[in-house]
């Protein structure tokens, strides 16, 4: 046998083995396809149960959302009331701290400036601590000036003045 015949024989045997392997894989695929479990069809009862479940879910979400909106509304009304009270106190303190106007003739009197309070809430880590408020009031009653109190307690002069005015 020549080299060429040997090569051809090897090639034929390789092709034969490859065909046998492919035939086995095709049989496995057919067997696996036939053994697959069937997916049950969705029945009208299943669809009704799904619809009822989704309707209940939407209803629960709507109820929860409505209750949360009512809570937010109540809280915002409480914040508005507190803001109004604080603005009134600040305005009262500003008027009390302002010097008395000098009498002027009606012909040259300038219109009085409008005092408006702008309330900006401070983050929790800032501001005066509760024990500092008591200390500020105590030092004020002893006759200390707001500047001295601020320096002693290491606070802002404006904070001290506000607490003294509200007191």
Work out the radius of gyration: 43 Å
Number of helices: 5
- What structural class do the secondary elements suggest? mainly alpha
Total count of strands = 0
First-last Cα distance:
120 Å
Shape: elongated
Sheet with the most strands, sense and barrel status? none
What multimeric state do the chains show?
single chain
The succession of helices and strands, N to C, reads HHHHH
Poorly predicted spans: 124-128
The percent of residues in helical segments reads over 70%
Q: Strand share of the residues?
A: under 5%
Mean pLDDT: 80
Structure notes:
- The protein is mainly α and 167 residues long.
- 70% of the residues lie in helices and 0% in strands.
- The radius of gyration is 43 Å and the shape is elongated.
- It starts with a helix and ends with a helix.
Which properties best describe this structure?
167 residues; 70% helix; 0% strand
Describe the structure in brief.
With 167 residues, the chain is mostly helical. The chain has helices at 3-35, 44-97, 130-141, 146-153, 157-166.
Produce the secondary structure layout.
Elements: H1 3-35, H2 44-97, H3 130-141, H4 146-153, H5 157-166
Helix pairs in contact: 3-4, 4-5
């Amino acid at each position: 046998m020549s080299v060429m015949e040997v090569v051809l024989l090897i090639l034929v045997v390789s092709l034969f083995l490859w065909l046998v392997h492919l035939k086995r894989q095709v049989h496995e695929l057919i067997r696996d396809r036939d053994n697959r479990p069937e997916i049950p069809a969705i029945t009208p009862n299943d669809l009704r149960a799904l619809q009822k479940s989704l309707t209940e879910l939407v209803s629960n979400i709507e109820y929860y959302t409505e209750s949360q909106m009512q809570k937010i509304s109540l809280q915002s009304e409480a914040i508005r009331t507190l803001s109004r009270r604080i603005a009134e106190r600040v305005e009262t303190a500003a008027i009390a701290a302002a010097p008395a106007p000098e009498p002027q003739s009606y012909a040259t009197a300038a219109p009085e400036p409008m005092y408006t309070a702008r309330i900006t809430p401070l983050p929790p880590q800032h501001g005066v601590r509760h024990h500092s408020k008591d200390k500020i009031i105590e030092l004020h009653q002893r006759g200390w000036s707001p500047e001295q109190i601020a320096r002693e307690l290491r606070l802002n002069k404006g904070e001290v003045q506000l607490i003294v005015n509200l007191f």
